Amino acid sequence: xxxxxxxxxxxxxxxxxxxxxxxxxxxxxxxxxxxxxxxxxxxxxxxxxxxxxxxxxxxxxxxxxxxxxxxxxxxxxxxxxxxxxxxxxxxxxxxxxxxxxxxxxxxxxxxxxxxxxxxxxxxxxxxxxxxxxxxxxxxxxxxxxxxxxxxxxxxxxxxxxxxxxxxxxxxxxxxxxxxxxxxxxxxxx
Length: 189
Hints:
Blueprint: E1 2-6, H1 13-24, E2 27-30, H2 37-44, H3 51-70, E3 75-78, H4 84-91, H5 93-101, H6 109-112, E4 120-126, H7 129-138, H8 149-155, E5 165-169, H9 174-184
Parallel strand pairs: 1-3, 1-4, 2-3, 4-5
Helix pairs in contact: 1-9, 3-4
């Protein structure tokens, strides 16, 4: 199983994911660790990333998820996943359709055709811009400029009924959120 904690910067993706990973003994990845230095510098300067700047990053994350899934490893990924297209890339759907459209043949056909989209749960952490702004004002040591929060809300496409997801209001405590995710996964934590 793969859980992707998603939402705008400052919504608690990393904190919730680390707590959940600790409770379940699952492997944790923070998508922020995989941004290029150029992307980190842009965001630190308050410049939002374009789709073209995000796609290589998302493809790297998708490769990690695919590798772990093929090894049978349960994973929790903290990743903004703001747009539907970004979530499709993480699930491998976007790249698979592009490959099929281009008659692309990958050397390892079995590896490229693993379908793990049904095994991904997106956990949409949402809250008011006022609450998240307060959180960002107290956050230390992160490259993301708080001035980008509005652009993240503008970019955000919340998950809909076509995606495997659950929504959690971030006004809840971390233990409450972790318990709620555990229930959705059918686990008692």
